[in-house]
Amino acid sequence: MAKGYLGRVLNVDLSNRKIGASELPEEAVLRKFNGGYGLGLNYLMDQIKPGTGPFDRNCPLIFFTGPLTATAAPAATNLTAISINGDNEFTAARSHTHGFFGVNLKWAGYDGIILTGRCEEEPLYLLITEDKVELKSAKHLWGKDTYETQDLLMNQYGLKKPGGSVLAIGPAGENLVGGAMICNDRNHSFSHSAMGMVMGWKRLKAMVVSGKSKPMPLADPEKFKRIGEKWRSVVLDGSVAAVVAGGAIPKSEMQGLKDMGLLTHNNFSGEPFPEYAIGMSKNDIKPQPCWGCPIGCAYRIEILHGPEKGLVAYPCGGAENMEGVGSNIGIADPGTNHALLDMCDRYGMESGHVGCSIGVAVEAYQRGILTKKDTDGLELEFGNAETMKKLIRKIAYREGLGDLLSKGPKRAADILGLPGSAVHIKGSSMNNHDWRSGWGTLLGQAVGTGSGWLSGGCDTFGNEPSVGYPEKLPPDDWRGQAASIKATSEYKIWAADCAGMCWFGVWGVKGGADLVAEAISAATGWDFSKQEGLKVGARVITMERVFALERGLTPEDDYKLSERLFEPPKYGPAKGKSIRPHLEGMIREYYELKGWDRKTGKPWRSTLDDLDLGHLSKKIWAE
Ligand code: SF4
């Protein structure tokens, strides 16, 4: 077994309450996928048949770390979850978290976990330590929110960060709500692809892990230390991490997003919203860094002013979580925004999914499609905090109108006969910034099959110097975006979701791709180059494509953005301009650069062969 890995995967058959461990695949497979999403997707494609859905007993819920997780690289905290997406019928579910869970999993001696089956008789939770792994009754936890569950289990086992971590679903996961998350360590979550719904259907309430802090087995620890120090010296130098470090997002009052025209407003239909988040920096904001992270984007906020004075919330540091139940539903007050976000985090639902579903409902109400009879007397309007609180609760418990909205924006809008009001990507909620003001990133969303994920791109938050983009691209120009999306998404999928880094540890970092490759070499003992790493990214994205094509994805699913995303934005650099006339050409160019058929979007046989994926050819091409 190569160094950098523990070599063991925890296998848990929930239906039969059987627990065992298996070995990681052979070294050649590890080198091909590194870990995380690549390894998990490879397992998923090996194990399941095309007709398998997220609510089948043999649909696995997989968690993998990467070879850099729990090392001295900065922000080496990634744990990626892989399954089948509950928000649509054809994409793999991909989501990742940070915090302390993945690190503790490695300290406990495992590279990953594969859960199969379903807890039949009663809900359970899984306890993982270095000495034992047990399934235990979660009857007393069922119904509790994600924070209550985390606190109860941490206290029960006497755990404190960093030497312990709990991940849990809340009522939304239990109730199979679309967009349900799995949440951990208060500030973190597997937010996308409805992972919480898959775990909820399995009736696994939580996982507790505790390991003792220890150095990872590395091929060349001294060399790794030098690389880690060099990396730490540049990680905040002009990178995207600098924009989020030390809880900078709330301290900035979202001014950067406003300047870039990326702030969503009233379900992507509003005018500029300058009053949003004003006063946010006047609250008590304390960074909550993940294990070993010098960036510290996550934060604790105590609201000191306004109607929610006294509220304490624990958001992660990206801003899209705030927009979903803030500007996107017309909420400007920072305290109210955090109160609504706190509800979503406690119920375990992704706020963008919730905010876009609420947007559909408000528009349906404005048009008289929904009336007070349908809303239990609620008057639906953007910006009404009390109504929003009631709606969020209804969604988590699928009560009344909440049952319809729990299906997500696309399904709810289709049922209401208002498809044009839904903002989504292939049925999943889009990660919530207004990408109409960033055509590269919007292209990345359109062609992405990971669902609801921020794609690569160099036109919004940052450049990507280590893969050929020292400067940002114009956000409202189609030229060059396809090539940049190819380069940056291959880098990010590899460095973050396969190698085990947080995005902020690699995004826009000078020499980032070289540092990741050098670190993998020092960890594993392989002579691993940046080119080999980028090929891992290309391989995994193409494999993800095959997975989706086999399940019915067509190029039309890429072209047909939700109608709202074709409407010209009312502010920002792309004001008055739509990507519509350019998108199909951009997508065809992207296909060609990837070695996918320009018309059908299928990876050519030669592309599959080049990426050592020739065995997948029969899944999409007739013999
Ligand atoms: S940058 Fe943020 S999410 Fe990433 S490891 Fe650091 S604190 Fe965690």
Give a quick rundown of the structure.
With 623 residues, the protein is of the alpha+beta class. It contains 25 helices and 15 strands. Helix 1 packs across helix 2, helix 12 (334-347) packs parallel to helix 14 and helix 19 (512-524) packs across helix 20.
Characterize the structure shown.
The chain has three domains: 8-210, 4-Layer Sandwich (Aldehyde Ferredoxin Oxidoreductase,  A, domain 1), CATH 3.60.9; 244-421, Aldehyde Ferredoxin Oxidoreductase Protein, subunit A, domain 2; 435-620, Aldehyde Ferredoxin Oxidoreductase Protein, subunit A, domain 3, CATH 1.10.599. The protein has 25 helices and 15 strands. It has helices at residues 27-33, 36-47, 101-107, 146-156, 171-174, 195-201, 221-234, 241-244, 248-251, 255-260, 320-324, 334-347, 351-366, 385-397, 401-405, 409-416, 439-447, 481-498, 512-524, 530-550, 555-559, 563-566, 580-594, 605-610, 617-620, and strands at 8-13, 18-23, 61-64, 79-84, 92-97, 112-116, 124-129, 133-137, 165-168, 182-184, 188-190, 204-210, 284-287, 299-302, 312-313. The strands form three sheets. The protein has a six-stranded mixed beta sheet. A six-stranded mixed beta sheet has the order 8-7-12-9-10-11. Strands 13-14-15 form a three-stranded antiparallel beta sheet. A hairpin with a 3-residue loop joins strand 7 (124-129) and strand 8 (133-137). The model has no long low-confidence stretch (mean pLDDT 95). The protein binds iron/sulfur cluster. Residues 75, 77, 98, 289-290, 293, 295-298, 316-317, 502, 504 line the site of iron/sulfur cluster.
